[in-house]
Amino acid sequence: MTPRPSTFAVPWLLAGPGALFFVGLVLLPLALTVILSFHAYDYSTGIQNTFTLSHYVAVVTDGYYLEIFARTLRIAALTTLICAAIGVPEAYILSRMRDPWRSIFLLVIIGPLLVSVVVRTFGWSMLLGSQGLVNQALQLLGFPPVRILYTETAIVVALVHVMLPFMVIPVWTALQKLDPMVEAAAWTLGASHFTALRRVVMPQATLGMLSGSLIVFGLSASAFAVPALLGGRRLKMAATLVYDEYLQELNWPLGATIAIIVLAANLCIMLAYNRMVEARARRTLG
Amino acid sequence: MHKNGPVALIFHILVLTFVLAPLVIICLVAFTPENTLSLPTAGLSLRWFEAVFAHPDFVASFWNSIWLATLSATLAVVFAVPAGLAISRYTFPGRDFLNALFLSPLIIPHLVLGVAFLRLFALIGATGSFAWLVATHIIIVTPYVLRLVLAALSGLDRSAEQAARTLGAGEWTTFRRVTAPMILPGITGGWLLAFINSFDELTMSIFVTSPATVTLPVRMYMYATESIDPMMAAVSALMIAITAVAMLVLDRAFGLDRILVGQR
């Protein structure tokens, strides 16, 4: 059924109130934040009514901020890689299971998505602490205790845990579209298991993996709870930096600048990735 | 169908262990009788759960979060159902813009939304009010409802509506008696998903809550940065329990995989 021919009044009456609400509470605050990032700031008198590029200059030239951005990108990239390395095979294993196991395990893997990030991060802080289970297990095996909490390792481990469902879901969805008989046909035609996996399953899984990576990378780069609770005072990431500028330094214009950079980077990566995924989809699926 | 080999099953078990470990440890430690975060070795105790219910801040934040999630999920449905009808049923100038606008909170990091709301509220003098907190949560959860409403509408057989119209029902009656009941599963699933997302939200809320409107995740975050004792584990265990119940309802009613597919 095609949508009704072009009418104007009815759909806008239906969606209008919501649209106004969203313009007022999404577009307007974002615009105000962009403007705020150009306001000058003085530590004794607060936000000035003069405009300056100094915050942007400071952020891209000061080694302190560059180090935090580099750490953010490094952690997000590493998290994405590990999520792909775990999530793609796991989704494939899930897709080869029979019900009811398949539904049960899928629920177990993606269910934690709905548990608050604070809760999951707290769980990891107990596991990774100096007296935590991981260290106790290491000592039982005769290794010396290691300091994991308040390191980048702790942040990456917890981020992988938080982000894994975002990788499993798209890969699993992509694999659902693959008829298992196609893989069987490849074997019948003499392909080895490895070749069938590489030539039949992987192209399909890659589509899901690309969109999963995009989500995981974007969310990891702007994650707040995990670095705030597991990174300690010194291991800041972009989000915890913004939080500190806003609520501790009270330098809102600088905080706004970093937030806008995070948003712009997020949107750019998303657009570039979308292009790539679409081009790839066209190539592989014809 | 082909069986997974032993290597695949070992890998699967390792992944399950990794996924469940932090949640299991929380639920175990929550029952400890000790004063420190430790596994209960000498019997189980409910003392830390009692401590939670005797802690006025946690109780207040819990009810705050429940009200916030209920109101914002309900109002999100009020916005998303008509918007979904407009987007899926009509072609009109601005349709793509509306669709992008309503879904935009999914791609804007919550951190950015948080600072943006804070700036707006500081300028209009709205900081700290519960009503504005609800407004921010509506923004965050509406996309989840809209997506499920759009999915429900696109999978709908239009002939029942046409039959109703042919039999003389008006637009409103047709919606109320035919369309609405058919997309009700989508609406209910969207409401529950919106409720959970609002109930769990931390990163945005931390910028817009005031001491009087602190939500449960924000309270837990503040508590965890100051002191760590088993009460934190008890609150976390309660949150896991609430989420698990909501999840089972969602899964029984609609299939969790179907609802979460594409969610970010």
Word description of this protein:
- The complex is a heterodimer of chains A (286) and B (264).
- Chain A is mostly helical.
- Chain A has a single domain (50-285), classed as MetI-like fold, CATH 1.10.3720.
- Chain A is 74% helix and 3% strand.
- Chain A is built from twelve helices and two strands; from the N terminus they run αββααααααααααα.
- Chain A has helices spanning 9-36, 54-61, 63-95, 101-110, 117-128, 133-140, 152-176, 180-188, 193-221, 225-230, 238-247, 252-285; strands spanning 39-42, 46-51.
- Chain A has a two-stranded antiparallel ribbon with strand order 1-2.
- In chain A, a hairpin with a 3-residue loop joins strand 1 and strand 2.
- In chain A, helix 11 packs antiparallel against helix 12.
- The longest helix of chain A is centred in the last third of the chain and has 34 residues, at 252-285.
- Chain A is globular.
- The mean pLDDT of chain B is 87.
- Chain B has a single domain (56-260), classed as MetI-like fold (Orthogonal Bundle).
- In chain B, helix 1 (6-29) crosses helix 11 (230-254) and helix 8 packs antiparallel against helix 11.
- Chain B is mainly alpha-helical.
- Chain B has twelve helices and no strands.
- Chain B has helices at 6-29, 47-53, 56-89, 95-103, 110-124, 130-154, 159-166, 171-200, 205-208, 216-226, 230-254, 256-260.
- Chain B is globular, with a radius of gyration of 22 Å.
- The interface between A and B is large, with 96 and 90 residues.
